[in-house]
Amino acid sequence: MRLIFLFVCTCFSLQISAQSQIDPKKLKFKPMFNGKNFKGWYSYLPTKGKNADPDSVFNIKDGLIHITGKEFGYIATEKSYSNFYMRLEFRWGTKKWPPRDADTTRRDNGILFYVPVDAKDEVWQKSIECQIQEGDVGDFWMIDSATIEFDGARTIPKDYQRAQKKKDGEKPTGEWNTVEIISNRGNIIYIVNGVKVNEGTNPSINSGRIIIQSEGAEIFYRKVEIAQL
Predict the structure, then answer these.
(1) Range 25-228 has CATH code 2.60.120.10
(2) Which of 70, 141, 148, 179 is the most buried (most CB within 10 A)?
């Protein structure tokens, strides 16, 4: 029995190891934005509703995704994803807005994924988050009772539950950072500027939309692309 147990554990470890060594050069990445508009996405602002953005909180500027941060909200994919490899580049802008406009308040944003397609639009929906925040890029946040296995135990279902990154790969504010999110058959990995910073397994949700937040800080995104695994 003990030999069988060890064999199963070894096989599982090898599976996780293989998933973490996916070669992006062998994948077929597709751009998630066309550089002109938000085709394939919709916007949501709590005070305006769906696809109502008179102040252009979300806009395309010189081919870049420009999020002013003036109001909390998000853009969400119309499509649902399960096993995927997403990569993007971001750079902070200079503007900050209430309630996060103080000089000591860190700029904040995030990539939420596995948002259920039938979920009500609100800030924020059940999901797993790859944190994009000054000093914390690569943290996990589990939202609305979502959970993962982290450090050998399942996280506690709460409105917001954090699992802090293990390493730091961030560049200074104002420089471009590359973020990779790999979610493949129960294994989730975050890579920041080539550094594997965090890993979790067996999320309680495993399919849904992808969201990019607006959360009080100006931010730019480019080279946003995804490959299905």
Answers:
(1) no
(2) 179
CA dist 80 and 76 (Å) reads 10
208, 202, 226, 63 alpha-carbon torsion, rounded to 10°: 70
Q: Identity (one letter) of the amino acid at 120?
A: K
Structural domain boundaries in the chain: 25-228
pLDDT tens by residue, 70-114: 999 999 999 999 999 999 999 999 999 999 999 999 999 999 999
Tens digits of per-residue pLDDT, 52-68?
A: 999 999 999 899 999 99
Which positions ≥6 away from 84 have C-beta within 8 Å?
113, 181, 182, 183, 184, 226, 227, 228, 229
One-letter amino acid for residue 143 of the chain: I
